[in-house]
Amino acid sequence: MLGMAKATQGFVVIGAQNVFFSITNLRTLTEIERGKYPIGLGEDVFVNEVISPETVDTIVSALLAIQQLFTDYGVETIHVVGSHSVFEAPNAEFVRDQLLNRTGWQVSHLSLSEEAFYRNQAVMARFPNFEAVTQTGTVLIDVSSGSVELTTFANGEFGFSRNFSLGPLRVYEVMRDVQRTEPNYVEILRDFIDSRLIDFMRLLPDDVTYTNMILMGSSLSVLETLIPTGQNAVAATRERFETLYDQVIHASDQFLMEQYDLPLNQVSQVLPIVLLINRLVQTLHSQTIFVSNLKLLDGVEINASLVQGYKAVSFDPNEEIITSAQNLASRYQVDQKHMATTVDFALTLFDRLKKMHGMSKRDRLLLQVAATVNDIGSYIDTHLHYAHSDYLIAASEIIGLTATEHQMVGTIAHFHSSDTPQTDLANLPEVNAVDRLRIAKLSALLRVADSLDASRQQKIQELSVSLRPDTVVLSARANDDIELERWTLALKGQFFTQVFGREIELKRRNTR
Questions:
Q1: Among 1.10.3210.10, 2.40.10.120, 3.40.630.30, 2.60.120.260, what is the CATH number of 318-510?
Q2: In which band, very low, low, confident or very high, does the pLDDT at 3 lie, cut at 50, 70 and 90?
Q3: Which of 106, 112, 238, 344 has the fewest CB atoms within 10 Å, measured from its CB?
Q4: What CATH number was assigned to the domain covering residues 128-293?
Q5: Under DSSP, is residue 212 helix (H, G, I), strand (E, B) or coil?
Q6: Contacts of 234 (CB under 8 A, 6+ apart)
């Protein structure tokens, strides 16, 4: 019973329009309670660009009610997160502090990439026949109040993900004056949406047809009376959706309210949602549209289950993170052979030197990501490419990383080359001391790994690592002279010695 109680935890997601909550057994991913409280925060964020005291009061009331429910159920472990749109407001950190003082709950800030990661986990774990559906090209569209996340799948695997500020509430607030003054509002709105989708369409592979479309997200409650979602998902044909589209673009607000029993505050979002989906259906030539009632909350639950070691789902979530990093490397045309070699050496060093560095599996993943993307700056200029890599990583989305981890990857990439940081990384005041040490250790390992293919000719075919009291000895089986690699390691390995207190040397074993 004690183990069962520990597995049952509480979850709260604060979004732009609702506070969602659940009580879930993480061992079985069975929900005991689930619900939501409307808060209307979106108008504050997207129009007034500040969260009002009245809205804070509403959020506090919702959290206190949820808190009482959790207490009644005896829930002790609670996860409270705020969506990215909540933290767009300039006073968001002040609000977070107010919520902490008034409820005792610390609200964690989800980045866009974390939100996309969690939603994908929700779909992979709970969408009916997900693997079978995604054998053919499938695009997942998550519609929240402030943004739309588009994610592609093919052959049952994750492709790539992009986020756009096209959430229906945001679009409505931005275009409200246009709707009032322009008679051809639908055409203007269509052009506005198309202009934002151009980048996504450009990135789509030419050899994949996206036959299937999965719709999900907090704002799809607007569509639930238009296209019922059922228990988890229901398929609508393209023809059925086009009929709905034709009806909506010609309907008055009064008609939509009466025909679909929609409240007035949701009617304004119907046209942006339906128009966005129609443009994607037309462009991607999707034939089957699945409408799912899965939410970000589902993904937060599943991630917690995976993190705590329960085997409620069978997939490896890290595969998405790695694929996302590989996509970024491909976009900036990195040398694939050198990248693969560097990744292999970096992970070999990490695994063989675990007693020395004492880092975690998550650190190993961050090293793998950094080794994958560290050379993307060469796309801009090979001179100071490591600095270019840093800002390109900062400006890009690597799905599944926290904001801190994203910054860490950029910094590790920056210091993988000859640009040596201060030994204690005191020049990174925005990073705490623990993470600075992680950055230093991972940068030192990546420098060594990169040095071992300095010639970019993959001369070293096998690497063994020996840890001695004052030295790390690398024995390489090579098919050619490796003097350049040895010279480069002598230069770039100095930081390794500073960090770990051991010299590092490279020896060659001849091939037979």
A1: 1.10.3210.10
A2: very low
A3: 106
A4: 3.30.420.150
A5: strand
A6: 227, 228, 290, 291
